[in-house]
Amino acid sequence: MKVLQINAVCGVTSTGRIMLQIHQALKQHGHESYLAYGREPAKNCEGAIRIGTNLDVYHHVLLTRLFDLHGFGSRRATARFVQMIGKIDPDIIHLHNVHGYYLNIEVLFKFLREFGKPIVWTLHDCWPFTGHCAHFLYAKCERWRTSCHSCPEKTSYPKSLLLDNSRWNYRKKKELFTGLKRLTVVTPSRWLAGLVKESFLSEYPVEVIPNGIDTNVFKPTPSDFRKRYGIEDKFVILGVANVWNRRKGFEYFLELSKFLSQREVIVLVGVNERQMKVLPKNIIGIKKTNSPEELAQIYTAADVFLNPTLEDNYPTVNLEAQACGTFVVTFDSGGSAETVISEESGIVLRKKSVEEIHGVLRRFGKKEDVFEKVSERLNEISTEAFTQRYLALYQSLKNQEDSM
User: Fold this and answer.
1) What is the pTM of this model?
2) What is the CATH number of the domain that holds 346?
3) Tell me: the pLDDT tens digits for 328-351?
4) Pick from 34, 40, 41: which is nearest to 19 by CA?
């Protein structure tokens, strides 16, 4: 079996690591696997196909910022790439994020319509069925159900500073993304699967395959983290994000810091230089780390993991924290509730308020080690379980193709 995966990035951030995990599983089982991506830097992606150049990406960004035409740049780069797909002639094409300033969706999907082979499309957010945004929960927008216009998220990713082209984008996406005969949609959460079934992608079969974590890395990992930061005797409330913004709940941590006692401290991983300057004294800011091992040490050192996310598909940070033995407190946003393994390892807050968070935290006198309570279910959330489900899906689609 020959599989080609396509994503904006390779080996970095959550989607890039997911693509790489599937690639490695395919190779381990003797299949041919190809990776294609659009933006540097790539990590552990030797032999991967780069779609276009940095210049193509910059031009695509400009087209997006000025005219809100995300997904409609990179025409030449995509035309060259689809010629390469024809030469590879994969049995399965697996799409991840087709947004990200590197692909022309018109060129790609016209090719896919003619290519005729099975397509798997993993949706990591809502961009494929909106006229602009990747997330709309925070804005409480329902326009995606009928036809986008006057987008309240115009200045959010993929940011447009000038025009609002969401009405045309919506119609064009609907035209391009529907009517493919061999496409299967995959979502990491039941929540997102439900949205897909209410969108113009509802004609396609939808599989729910939750993202997995490396349970060989994310496990109780003692370290000198507390000593290094001088917080040995503190109650540590941890937050982790790739990027901290309103959607991830950054302001909730700032507000929560006002309620903390002298024995409590917040640690935030993933803050940028600007955010570091506004943190109060009882919040320790740490820049983003690409080391899973370091993250496991930090998760283990924390007394509780707080994820006040306002929009999320399937936040694996919740799974990572629980696997490291740390109790999770998270908002009921998107698919976040689906990542709490049991009532003994986490709590889902229906009311999104600092008072509600503080009320829950008051119950903790010390760390409640939840590792033993979730250890029997770790196989269910492992990378191995996750990749095996994808391989089984590929094989099923390949068998259907062979029997036709």
Assistant:
1) 0.94
2) 3.40.50.2000
3) 999 999 999 999 999 999 999 999
4) 34
